[in-house]
Amino acid sequence: MPSLSLSETLHSLVHAYKKQLRNDIAAQKIDLPVTHIRALKGICRNPESTAQSIALRMQRDKAQITRVLNELQHSGFITKVDNPKDGRSQLLRPTAEGEKIMRQVNISERKTVAHMTQALCPDEVATFIQLANRISKSVDETFSANSVTQKRLSTERKSSVEKVSIAPQLMAEHAAVEPSIEDEHNE
């Protein structure tokens, strides 16, 4: 049987993890979508969480995250308090119920990892973690480099567009101020 490509292996692994985690979370009787759980996890881990920081962490649109946060607040899992450092934002805090849900999620995650790594020895798990972290770091570095390049190109394009837009105006102004060579000869 031919071995799977790295792409297929990673895809298969991610889906296996998600499937197992969904089963383990369902066994805990947690009835929250994954996006809500991820947002709650971010809030529990970072006492300086804001809607913006959660959106960045999850790489999601801020409007989508705002809806998720409003639902978490309405369900009694988080509260919002004024941010003393920035009056335009609010800090997000888990409630006692939100912390309880997070403890259940953590139990589910540990069960999922134990189930998925049961056939591996501790050294294999450590090697896998090391390799996965290197792959993630490589992707993050490439993404960051591409982001910087995209911003630079966007700025250059904007500058070029402004120059092209301004050029006819400058030429017209220049023509109005300085007489043409023909005008000088005719005098």
TrEMBL record:
Keyword rRNA processing recorded: no
Domain (HTH marR-type) ranges: 3-137
Signal peptide limits: none
InterPro entries to which the protein is assigned, alphabetical: HTH_MarR-typ, Metal_resp_HTH_trans_reg, WH-like_DNA-bd_sf, WH_DNA-bd_sf
A Pfam entry, by short name: MarR_2
Keywords: DNA-binding, Transcription, Transcription regulation
Protein's recorded name: HTH marR-type domain-containing protein
Protein source organism: Shewanella glacialipiscicola
UniProt lineage: Bacteria, Pseudomonadati, Pseudomonadota, Gammaproteobacteria, Alteromonadales
